[in-house]
Specification:
- The protein is mainly beta.
- The chain has a single domain, classed as Jelly Rolls.
- Helices cover about 10% and strands about 45% of the residues.
- A hairpin with a 4-residue loop joins strand 2 and strand 3.
- It is globular.
- About 35% of the residues are buried.
- The model has no long low-confidence stretch (mean pLDDT about 95).
- This is YhcH/YjgK/YiaL family protein.
């Protein structure tokens, strides 16, 4: 997991061949206009979300990780909370892996809680189990899926 501000994204572009594309799209995107999925080239697609946040308890119902994609989650405005735990320390599966949606869920207790503020991003690799969308106000965010 990596947390930083969008202005520092160049530091991470060498970690994956499509990260530069993903970060360039985030910087250039009309963030207010993005609503729903936008398919992109080179294994990068974006999803704009504006809506209600969740409690920590509700977010834990979808404590998730991915096998085929890396998530870059970007906070446009306000704050967004996340729960996190290393996948290697998770042992209580919540259903089977969904190949179509590239998601698996766990019922383990998280190790960490953190918040993003406006213009911050978090990168979740397959080894990062996470529960996003925690807060007490409306969320305004973008999720970028980068195919591994």
């Amino acid at each position: 997991m990596i947390i930083d501000f969008i202005e520092n994204s160049a530091r991470y572009e060498g970690l994956h061949p499509s990260f530069k594309i993903a970060f360039d799209r985030l910087k250039q995107q009309d963030k207010a206009a993005l609503d729903g999925w936008v398919d992109e080239e080179n294994g990068v697609k974006m999803f704009g979300f504006k809506g209600e946040s969740k409690t920590k308890e509700k977010a834990l119902e979808t404590f998730e990780c991915h096998d085929k994609n890396i998530d870059i989650q970007f906070c446009i405005s306000g704050k967004e909370g996340f729960l996190w735990k290393p996948r290697a320390n998770c042992s209580i599966a919540n259903g089977d892996y969904n190949t179509e949606k590239d998601v698996r869920f766990f019922n383990d207790a998280p190790d960490t809680y953190f918040e993003l503020q406006a213009n911050q991003f978090v990168i979740f690799f397959p080894e990062d189990v996470h529960a996003p969308m925690i807060g007490d106000a409306e969320l305004n965010k973008i999720v970028v899926k980068v195919l591994i």
